Amino acid sequence: MEQERGGHYSYALRYAWLTSVYDPVVRWTCRETKFKSDLVRQARLAPGDRVLDLACGTGTLTVMLKKVGPGADITGLDGSEGILDIARRKVAEAGVDVTFTHALSYDMPFEDSTFDRVLSSFFFHHLDTIDKIRTLEEVRRVLVPGGELHIADWGRPPNFLFRLAFGVVQLLDGFRTTRESVAGLLPDYMGDAGFELVLETGRVLTPLGSVSLYSAVKPGMAA
Ligand SMILES: C[S@@+](CC[C@H](N)C(=O)[O-])C[C@H]1O[C@@H](n2cnc3c(N)ncnc32)[C@H](O)[C@@H]1O
């Protein structure tokens, strides 16, 4: 599945051999702890919540979610078995209990209305337009009515300096999919996929560009 191409899948840092350096690179260049903590706080987990970390990668956010919400049921999903192995090791070291699933974001092996919350960080900028929309539709399907989506990803920069800095990310991750990030189009796609109350809730400025936090709600009454 990792070899799947055509805009359907991309490695954490473009090339498989860079996966092993992903954690230190992101920690030291992207203010990872700050924006992931903000995202977890924004999701307001409650005991018993069923929570999906979509494209969980090496599992940093997955572990944070379990530590902040020990009574929540946390699942991490990713399209790469290799990166899930790193995540499993991290979870074992942290001594927390989470479930991992190997699957692609637009074809998830979950029943309708499985999750109360879906969170995702540094993922959507890897997807082309069609995959962004079909992933968002799939997220809406697996959320309960009234369930919430919380995303942190590269967003519209506040000024020319942050736009310039983001060029480094674009050189690595490619221009085709990331162009939409700097244009701030993700909230529009969330609306197109049927979410309501779509908001950009905050922004974290990093040496490599501006990370936006978003929230959105699946229409319908919570059971
Ligand atoms: C930049 S990493 C982000 C990982 C993690 N969420 C984080 O914040 O560090 C992007 C992740 O998306 C995964 N991925 C890429 N395309 C995917 C897809 N279509 N479905 C599921 N996972 C995918 C990659 O394997 C990688 O782990």
The CATH homologous superfamily is called Vaccinia Virus protein VP39
- The CATH C-level name is Alpha Beta
Outline the low-pLDDT stretches.
1-7
Element pattern in H and E:
HHEHEHEEHEHHHEE
Residue-averaged pLDDT: 92
CATH architecture: 3-Layer(aba) Sandwich
Distance between the termini: 35 Å
Instruction: Specify Rg, calculated over alpha carbons.
Output: 16 Å
Please characterize this protein's 3D structure.
By secondary structure, the protein is of the alpha/beta class. The protein has one domain (16-217): Rossmann fold. Helices cover 39% and strands 24% of the residues. The chain has eight helices and seven strands. It has helices at 22-29, 32-43, 60-68, 81-94, 129-142, 160-173, 175-182, 186-192, and strands spanning 50-54, 73-78, 99-102, 115-121, 143-154, 196-206, 209-217. It has a seven-stranded mixed beta sheet, with helices on both faces. The longest helix has 14 residues, at 81-94. It is globular, with a radius of gyration of 16 Å. The N and C termini lie far apart (35 Å). Mean pLDDT is 92; it is low at 1-7. The protein binds S-adenosylmethionine. S-adenosylmethionine is lined by residues 8-10, 12, 26, 55-57, 60-61, 78-80, 83, 104-105, 121-123, 126.
